[in-house]
Amino acid sequence: MGFLDILGILAGLFTSSSIIPQITKTIKRKKANDVSIFMFVVLSTGNALWIYYGAEKSDMPIIATNLLALGLNVVMMVLKFRFREKENAGTGYKYDNNAGGNIW
Amino acid sequence: MGFLDILGILAGLFTSSSIIPQITKTIKRKKANDVSIFMFVVLSTGNALWIYYGAEKSDMPIIATNLLALGLNVVMMVLKFRFREKENAGTGYKYDNNAGGNIW
């Protein structure tokens, strides 16, 4: 493995693993209201195209790191979906029996 | 420009422009509390390394699209910084004269 392969793998590890801090933050906060789901949909499409590009060019770092990124993107999209019901948490007007006023 | 160049540029446009929905959402909501700043720091480092990799391999699609991504990442980091003071908006205990109890 030459210098270029190592450089490519390093570059790909950074861009792929960049999603990890977002995954960690989402798990901690149990919400991702400010996070755009479209970002991860578009990113995954891009990763899939990079894998195709890497395969055509027999470029191993591109293939490997985009596969990793794709996997992490799927994890983030599942988290965003799982925590979607927190979107309006804290308002609680409709179903909160402890709300200040009488609902009638 | 061959098929591979077009494929690479397309792949890179997807991964780079994936940040645009996040930028749009942040501008609309005027907050990005759930967004991890570390994601964009690590991503930018990766983009810089990809530009180096692309330059070494004379791979134009990699260079061009990572330059674009780097620019968009900087925009997102500026937005995250600009809207940082909204982190605790809505609690307002300390300075809210309309808070229920007497502060003394």
UniProtKB/TrEMBL annotation, chains A, B:
Keyword match Transferase: no
Cellular compartment(s): Membrane
Keywords carried by this UniProt record: Membrane, Sugar transport, Transmembrane, Transmembrane helix, Transport
Membrane topology: Multi-pass membrane protein
Source organism, top-level taxon: Bacteria
Major location (coarse): membrane
Name the UniProt record assigns to this protein: SemiSWEET family sugar transporter
